[in-house]
Amino acid sequence: MLKDRGRYESMVNLDLYRVFYTVAKCGSLTRAAEELYISQPAVSQSVKQLENQLGVTLFNRTHRGMELSQQGGKLIFAEVERALSLLNEAQNRIAQMKIKATGTIRIGASDTIFEYFLADKIVRFHERFPAVKIELMADFTPDTIEKLKANRCDVAFVNLPVEVDEELELEGNFMRLNDIFIVGEKYKKLGEEEVSFSKLKKYPFVLMDKNTVSHRSFEAFTRTIGVDIHSSIEVGSWDLMKRLVASGMGIGVIPREYAMAELENGTLFEVKTDPVLPARSIGMLLPKDKPVSYALHSFLSDFREGN
Predict the structure, then answer these.
(1) Fewer beta carbons below 10 Å: N end or C end of the chain?
(2) Cβ neighbours of residue 280 closer than 8 Å, sequence gap 6 or more
(3) Which is nearest to 113 in space by CA: 238, 227, 229?
């Protein structure tokens, strides 16, 4: 306990040295207090505290003000001035980096994640850091993960759930996705009442490609409730799914968040079911133990602070 206390008391208190330096520069407790925006007693107390820690008298109190002592203040003044100057330079350098972040950020995600989740954040980041080049690499979640592992992108935003990978670090959940069934005018009556899965399976289905997380999640859920639903058509984009469903090609499964416009204008209709489809979300993947550039750190801070 005594050893820890001694270590704590010997730690450098930069505020005390800043007060010492300001008093030495001003030659007066009053003027130093005005420059530091603190009270004169607080300045005096800080000087006494530093003198007690160092075991020397730092100033001679004279009728002219505060003068550095020969065997105390004058011995350390130059080193303190240099140390504070280096700290100020470091702070200024960080401030400049925030204004002038440069380099390239390679972002991997699906077209839909870019459109519905990332677009506004990318625009906002570009306005803050115009010198940073942003490369967008659109692909399905499994392929995006492979690009991240192969160092072809720096960060990946993916549909969850994904398999645990020891090479990657997962952060999230950043955006909730509520999967729903949708139909067009042809099957509009299905949206008028709650429908069972056993009834739905009699209709044709338009689903995303088998390699997508959404398709795998849907298949896994239907297996758990003992219903086997097969797709009549598989597509590679949500936009194509919405067009085919609206044309009467079948029932689609899509996050409600991706179909809000069509649901509001009456192009598509939601089908209520019991049970409802489980919610999913979007997560962020980064390589483990890989240094993060300042530009990438600044971009990611938006998500981490909001989460």
Answers:
(1) N
(2) 159, 160, 161, 176, 177, 179, 213, 214, 217, 255
(3) 238
User: pLDDT higher for 9 or 61?
Assistant: 61
- How far apart are the C-alpha atoms of 123 and 146, rounded to whole Å? 26
> What is the reported pLDDT for 2?
36
Whether residue 129 is predicted with pLDDT greater than 60 in this model: the reply is yes
Compute the Cα dihedral for 140, 145, 148, 149 and give only its sign: negative
Question: Measuring CA to CA, how many Å separate 267 from each of 116, 178, 200?
Answer: 19, 19, 20
Nearest residue to 18 (alpha-carbon basis) of 50, 66, 59:
50
DSSP letters of 82-104? HHHHHHHHHHHHHHHHHHS--EE
Is pLDDT larger for residue 250 or for residue 297?
A: 250
Alpha-carbon gap, residue 290 to 284, rounded angstroms:
15
Size (the chain), residues: 307
Strand partners, 269: 183
| DSSP letter for each residue of 10-73 | HS--HHHHHHHHHHHHHTSHHHHHHHHTS-HHHHHHHHHHHHHHHTS--EEEETTEEEE-TTTH
Integer-rounded Cα Rg, in Å, for the chain is 31
The Cα 235–Cα 172 span in angstroms is 27
**Tokens (6 digits) for 100:** 């002038």
